[in-house]
Amino acid sequence: MTVSEVIDLFGIIFRPFPGAKQAALSQGSKQLFMETANAILNKNHTTAASPEQLLNLPLPSHLAPRWPFYVFLSGSMFCLLSSSVCHLFCCHSYHANTLLLRMDYVGITAMIITSFFPPIYYIFICESLWQIVYLSGISLFGLFTIVTLLSPALSSNKCRALRAMLFCCMGLFGLVPAIHASVVNWGNPGRSITLAYEAAMALSYLTGTAFYVSRVPERFKPGWFDLAGHSHQIFHVFVVIGAVAHFGAGLVFLQWRDMIGCDSSS
After folding, report:
1. What is the pLDDT of residue 40?
2. Residue 4 belongs to some domain of the structure
3. pLDDT exceeding 70 applies to what percent of the chain?
4. Cα(76)–Cα(247) distance, rounded to whole angstroms?
5. Number of structural domains, the chain?
6. Is residue 24 part of a domain?
7. Helix, strand, coil: what percent of the chain each, to 5?
8. Which end is more exposed in the chain, N or C (fewer Cβ atoms within 10 Å of the end residue's Cβ)?
């Protein structure tokens, strides 16, 4: 429930292996928070603050709203939960199969929509107009996709490519605010970090979608991958990787806003 604990967990998994001096330092949430702040806010990149200086920095007096972050986490968990329920019970009957597949598609759409909330909200927190434009745009696009996918005709295997195209188009919608944000925050040292995370997310989603559409490897050896290793399992692995990458970007956005607040010049 507290972001500091989430940051600690994420840092343990993805931080590089510490050297001799780093290993002796405390790994508490306060220091990790300050090290991240130093990396983001140190614009010269010539000298880094010492651990003592970092620990003596005052904690931010203002905190950015957490709800966009939790919107993304809720959408991701709903997506994976609906997919789990679909795969578990879709063998019950034809009617249940059709209904659960639609629920699975709604979950994917919800995950895509909610993934836009943290970056757009935190980047344009000082420009509410762009928040409304981009978040309304992706929400309307998502609602159109949900209504389209609820059609029985589009739930068939013949429309796999069409469904994948709709999901990809929703993801590619993010290029517009991404380019806008890059221009607005061109001088921000944290820009390259978040772009790297988001590029990893996009690459993971697109790679997973390619497996989903092409049905590799089972198309070459039918029956060999029925239990393990088929394209849909590979697709889910890449979806989780993409969600974790976006999670990392969301933490950077959140910490950045916690440190500078609503400062249109940053």
Report:
1. 45
2. no
3. 73
4. 10
5. 1
6. no
7. 75, 0, 25
8. N
**Could you give the CA distance from residue 61 to residue 219 in angstroms, rounded to a whole number?**
57
User: What's the angle, vertex CA 63, arms to CA 177 and CA 111, rounded to 5?
Assistant: 40
- Tokens 């790297």 found at: 196
Per-residue tokens: 146: 């949900």
Q: For position 10, what pLDDT does the model report?
A: 52
Going by C-alpha positions, the residue among 247, 250, 187, 197 that lies closest to residue 42 is 187
Cα(105)–Cα(167) distance, rounded to whole angstroms? 9
**Which range is least confidently modeled, 55-69, 97-111, 208-222, 242-256?**
55-69
Joined tokens for residue 115: 């993934």
Flag whether pLDDT at 162 surpasses 60: yes
Residues 250/72, Cβ–Cβ less than 8 Å = yes
Domain range enclosing 129: 67-260
Tokens 């940051």, residue located = 7
Q: Considering the domain boundaries, does residue 25 fall inside one?
A: no
Task: Answer yes or no: are the C-beta atoms of 104 and 236 closer than 8 Å.
Answer: no
Distance (Å, whole) CA 261 – CA 256: 8
State how far the Cα of 224 lies from the Cα of 227, in Å rounded to an integer.
Answer: 8
CB atoms within 10 A of CB 32: 21
**Is 3 part of a structural domain of the chain?**
no
Q: What distance in Å separates the CA atoms of residue 254 and residue 135, rounded to the nearest whole number?
A: 17
Phi, psi of 126 (to 5 degrees): -95, -5
Spatial distance between the Cα atoms of 164 and 178, rounded to a whole number of angstroms: 22
In the structure encoding, which two tokens stand for residue 261, read together? 């607040």
CB of 255 closer than 8 Å to CB of 37: yes
Binned at pLDDT 50, 70 and 90, residue 189 comes out as low
